Amino acid sequence: MKLVIPFLGKTKSAWIEAGIQDYAARLGRYAQLEMPVLKDPYVHGAPEERTKELQAQALLAAARGAQLLVALDAGGMSLNSVELADLWTRWEEQGRTSVALLIGGHLGLAQSLLDRASYPLALSSLTFTHEMSRLILLEQLYRVCTIRAGHPYHL
Predict the structure, then answer these.
(1) Is domain 2-154 classified as CATH 3.40.1280.10?
(2) Per the annotation, does 38 bind a ligand?
């Protein structure tokens, strides 16, 4: 499976970036991973909805060609790790070979992007920064792969 996870701007926190790189390397054993870093169109003082729309356009352009769009949003489906592994298996059984997982900036995702998403997915009912969400998503995707492979990491 090819996973595309575009990031709006660089990860500023060194410890989060180190974790992202660690889990990206681990995940790379199971899936093809692309994590393009996009220029974040956020402008201080600009209307929030306009900013979110510009971010959505950038994310969708980076996700072009993906067969499924997964939007990370607090209002999305709440799955545990095993359920997410089952969903990944269903996608593969349906012949899906590429998935884009979209994380918004600090304002969240535009409604237009959420409406286009194949799957809105919540990482948690807790709120995380968009940078922490990157790390948590990669860890969970790695966990999904180890579940599917029968590896004891999940236990």
Answers:
(1) yes
(2) no
